[in-house]
């Protein structure tokens, strides 16, 4: 059920007001959806926070579902960019790439970066397989898993597909735990857990 949320415009500065309406809408949607959940925010609240109106919002996004999908697509693109950065930082070093990936996730959660948790939160909220946002989430999950499988195969470790799945499930579980465990920091032990899993796959 959507609720109306009274929010001060997230685009009160002159520079922000100069942005095109579509960009303002997406920035407002990201802030509101990440904070209140995709089902907890109506298009009225997004339009108001973006300094525009529903008519303009619907000119750029035919439905709220398509707005949600585009919001998720932006988060997924940030995750994909991280894989490219890691490979550029550690060319030809698959184990270093895995370690860097784990460190990125732990550091992002530690410093309040919401991308991973926002995707995990949306995945729990959007259950309809026909929802365009669900399709974005599933494609993102497949891409992350495929990237991890590729790196694990390059590592020369035994049973790379199994290793990739073990690491992937550990990461996904940590993201959900980060949202639901108050006062704890479940991502802080990722490196140690991963080291044990990787050691079990050494030939």
UniProtKB/TrEMBL annotation:
InterPro entries: Homeodomain-like_sf, HTH-type_TetR-like_transc_reg, HTH_TetR, Tet_transcr_reg_TetR-rel_C_sf. Residues 19-79 form the HTH tetR-type domain. Coiled coil: none annotated. It comes from the Bacteria. Keywords: DNA-binding. Residues 42-61 bind DNA. PANTHER family: HTH-TYPE TRANSCRIPTIONAL REGULATOR RUTR, HTH-TYPE TRANSCRIPTIONAL REPRESSOR BDCR. This is AcrR family transcriptional regulator.
């Amino acid at each position: 059920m959507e609720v109306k949320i009274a929010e001060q415009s997230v685009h009160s500065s002159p520079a922000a007001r100069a942005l095109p309406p579509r960009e303002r809408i997406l920035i407002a949607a990201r802030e509101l959806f990440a904070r209140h959940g995709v089902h907890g925010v109506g298009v009225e609240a997004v339009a108001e926070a973006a300094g525009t109106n529903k008519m303009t919002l619907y000119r750029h996004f035919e439905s709220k579902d398509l707005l949600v999908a585009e919001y998720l697509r932006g988060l997924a693109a940030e995750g994909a960019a991280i894989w490219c950065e890691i490979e550029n930082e550690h060319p030809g070093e698959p184990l270093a790439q895995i370690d860097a990936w784990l460190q990125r996730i732990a550091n992002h959660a530690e410093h309040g970066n919401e991308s991973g948790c926002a995707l995990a939160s949306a995945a729990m909220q959007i259950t309809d397989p026909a929802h365009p946002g669900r399709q974005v989430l599933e494609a993102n999950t497949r891409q992350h898993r495929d990237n991890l499988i590729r790196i694990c195969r390059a590592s020369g470790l035994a049973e790379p597909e199994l290793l990739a799945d073990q690491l992937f499930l550990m990461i996904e579980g940590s993201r959900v735990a980060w949202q639901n465990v108050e006062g704890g920091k479940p991502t802080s032990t990722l490196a140690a857990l991963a080291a044990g899993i990787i050691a079990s796959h050494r030939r």
